[in-house]
Design goal:
Blueprint: E1 11-14, H1 20-30, E2 34-39, E3 63-66, H2 72-84, E4 87-90, H3 96-99, H4 104-110, E5 115-120, H5 135-141, H6 144-147, H7 163-187, E6 192-196, H8 197-204, H9 206-215, E7 233-237, E8 243-247, H10 251-261, H11 276-287, H12 292-299, E9 306-308, H13 312-315, H14 319-323, E10 327-332, E11 336-341, E12 355-356, H15 366-372, H16 377-385
Parallel strand pairs: 1-2, 1-4, 2-3, 4-5, 5-6, 10-12
Antiparallel strand pairs: 7-8, 8-9, 10-11
Helix pairs in contact: 1-7, 7-8
């Protein structure tokens, strides 16, 4: 039986252009929500960051409206949209939404059922709430960078993905919004959600934070199997210069990889601190005898927790990902046909066919959306003539 989209009938107004709020909107749209991106008209567009055409799946399946939220008349237009919406997502610096008179208090005066989600680096209050920042800052203050391994110069490496932006922020916001929608079915009223990326990073670090709180043992590089204390959990160079990830924890899997590499002498010493350097030397020597893909073909399916370390182009050719249908076709008005990541989370509706994505410089459903909100053609025309909408 074909199920309807999980968020079918839910309307979300997204005031962001990049970052965790935009990632949250992408997640919610792929669960079936109607997402309306609220941006500035051309005369004000220099104040906003315009992402590349391919970013955030090119706003696949979303609508766009352009309003000057600093002008009273177009702000009233936005509030009319709020009356019919379920969720507003914003990513202003704390205090800005209140100055614009579109804070949660202003929104719920027009719609008691509205859910307002604010995403920010450090939350809406506290001594760091006004700090500017980006992903590297949030992984820094959370302890994530400190617990990473070290470069040859002793410095923590920059992570290969913006995990604060995506997981600590975007996923947190999407999850909080869905929980608030569920709670609204019980209470009948909306609520305010204060999403802090720095707070979200603490959850991602919770296994180490809880360890420290419970035992007093300070986590760091190499303090624990997951941070590199053991040779059985690490990255090794194969004979062709490519890399292999060995992620063994269970003794049975360790025995399997030792037998597969001809290193049976180390089976009983997986967690022996005195032997780790010697085990690493032997693992490195063994993996160097064959290419990465030869080792994967020989051992990956033998309960060894051995996988290739892929470059992005290799990821997209991986037969497992291809089988799961993670890539879809899209078409941009000026950039033409290209591929993009499809729906990746359980319960999302996979895009069907070629996905039309917007040219963010010109995309606008403003007239249609304002007519739907009940504005007359004359009012819409006057706002457009004055540059308050586009």
């Amino acid at each position: 039986m074909s199920l309807p989209p999980a968020l079918d009938g839910i309307t979300i107004l997204d005031l962001s252009t990049v970052g965790p709020a935009t990632r949250a909107a992408r997640i919610l749209a792929d669960y079936g929500a109607r997402v309306i991106k609220v941006g500035a008209p051309p005369s004000k567009s220099g104040l906003q960051t315009t992402p590349p055409f391919y970013a955030y799946s090119g706003d696949r399946g979303m609508q766009h409206i352009k309003l000057d939220l600093k002008a009273h008349e177009s702000k009233e237009v936005f509030l009319k949209l709020v009356e019919r919406a379920d969720v507003v997502i914003e990513s202003y610096r704390p205090g800005v939404a209140d100055r614009l008179e579109i804070s949660f208090e202003h929104l719920r005066a027009r719609n008691q059922r509205i859910i307002c989600c604010s995403t920010s680096g450090y939350g809406q209050d506290g001594p760091a709430s006004q700090w500017a920042g980006h992903d590297l800052n949030y992984v820094g203050v959370s302890g994530f960078l400190f617990c990473n391994g070290r470069r040859e110069d002793g410095m923590p490496p920059i992570p290969g993905s913006s995990i604060a932006d995506s997981a600590a922020g975007g996923m947190q916001a999407a999850m909080a919004i869905m929980a608030a929608l569920l709670r609204r079915t019980q209470t009948g009223v909306g609520e305010y959600l204060d999403v802090s990326l720095a707070d979200g990073m603490l959850y991602l670090m919770s296994i180490y934070i809880d360890e420290y709180l419970a035992t007093g043992k300070e986590p760091g590089p190499g303090h624990y199997i997951l941070t590199g204390s053991n040779a059985c959990y690490g990255v090794y160079r194969a004979g062709d210069g490519k890399y292999l990830a060995l992620g063994v924890i269970e003794p049975a899997f360790w025995a399997n990889i030792c037998r597969g590499l001809g290193l049976e002498q180390w089976i009983a010493h997986q967690n022996d601190p005195a032997m780790q350097d010697s085990i690493r030397v032997d693992l490195a020597e063994a993996f160097g005898r064959k290419s990465r893909d030869e080792w994967v073909a020989e051992l990956a399916d033998k309960n060894t927790c051995l996988t290739p370390v892929y470059s992005i182009d290799e990821v997209l050719e991986d037969p497992q990902y291809r089988h799961r249908g993670i890539v879809v076709e899209a078409e941009h008005p000026t950039q033409g046909r290209f591929q993009q990541l499809g729906a990746t989370f359980a319960g999302q509706i996979a895009p069907d066919g070629v996905q039309a994505v917007a040219d963010l410089a010109t995309a606008s459903d403003t007239f249609e959306l304002l007519a739907e909100a009940g504005l007359t053609g004359a009012v819409i025309g006057d706002l457009h003539e004055r540059g308050l909408i586009a």
